[in-house]
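ok here's DNA repair protein RadA:
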Amino acid sequence: MAKEKTVYTCSECGGASPRWLGKCPHCEAWNTLIETVPQAAAGTRNRFAALAKTAEVAVLADIEASEEERTPTGIGELDRVLGGGIVEGGVVLIGGDPGIGKSTLLLQALDGLQRAQVPTLYVTGEESGAQVALRSRRLGLDSSQVKVLAEIQLEKILATLSAARPAVAVIDSIQTVYSDQLTSAPGSVAQVRECAAHLTRAAKASGTAVVLVGHVTKEGALAGPRVLEHMVDTVLYFEGDTHSSFRLVRAIKNRFGAVNEIGVFAMTEKGLKGVANPSAIFLSQHSEPVPGSCVLVTLEGTRPMLVEIQALVDSGGPSPRRLSVGLDRDRLAMLLAVLHRHAGVACMDQDVFVNAVGGVRIGEPAADLSVMLAITSSLRGKPLPRGFIAFGEVGLAGEVRPAPRGQERLREAAKLGFSVAVVPKANAPKKGSREIEGLTIHAVDRIEEAMEVVRALQ
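and the structure:
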């Protein structure tokens, strides 16, 4: 089969060049030429024609809609992040730092699927079959029947998928796969985009669920073109420090489930194990309440989770520091200004350090009230009462705004034995509704009221 000719297209102006140049000859932009396969001329067969399904125009109300059937992987936390399991023909992209556990988790999932009589295929481009077998022995996957293919050429991978027809296939990793249609090296923008497009179309046409493993850049984003995330159905990110035994898998995009859903895993000698009660990880065990500690009920996807917020306020020099780990640093500066203006708590000459325990990253504004109470507790040297929680967004005018799904947060806190809560007034149980047993709830409208309630409790 003759290899198709390629051209180099400018990503700025769209101009084409027969060979690579440092400067685009059309718009004179530097380093913008990317190798692409030219569009087929009219009347010739398109290379994606066999995979494209023709359909007639239909009215939306007349289209039969049914829930997507899901195949559980047998790993509860991974199924939670995926929305219940793997969808037929779905394409999942999973990224994370080197050594964090991507290949380990997927090998465990494939072994569980294979034991449930689901045909699987593991395509490895970074390791040999012997290395994959060694890892399976270390994980305790004795007599595993997962089929392994050590291959990086796209055309051979597609031929194997067509012949073997597995229900689930893992490509580890997409950056190592190359197509003969392009002359650029594996991992280049053109190769990653072209190979991902072919694998995605093959998955949709055959019904095979494909999981792509992606490398990440120094900044932690998925390497390769941004269009890679738009092609796939689900994007998962591995989070966590390689020096810690805990890992988080977060859904950034999911066409078949909730986004920002997280799964919590613990790395053990036998691989990754799901953590049923993740709140226990993010709560420190203090024998006595300590100043500067406040528990927050945060919402990760559909799961309420308790996280301890710790603050340390110490005397600083002429340029006090503001440092936050797991929280937005700019938002910390804003909260300190609101605390000074509306609650009369000044930290202008103090160093302020805020940390979310356990390495979790909190992006929702419902953490505002907990952060401010932790800072005030550390500044005054007085601990908050035992069994205390707080959540709520704080505005620039000092008002405390409600957090979404407040009742679920309060029920989760009561289930774990917490007894006192300071929450926005809109999140308090309504009159006539069932009170949350064992939880004393103080509803506040403004940050000043929250401070008065805490002073009365201390």
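+1. Residues 1-37 form one domain.
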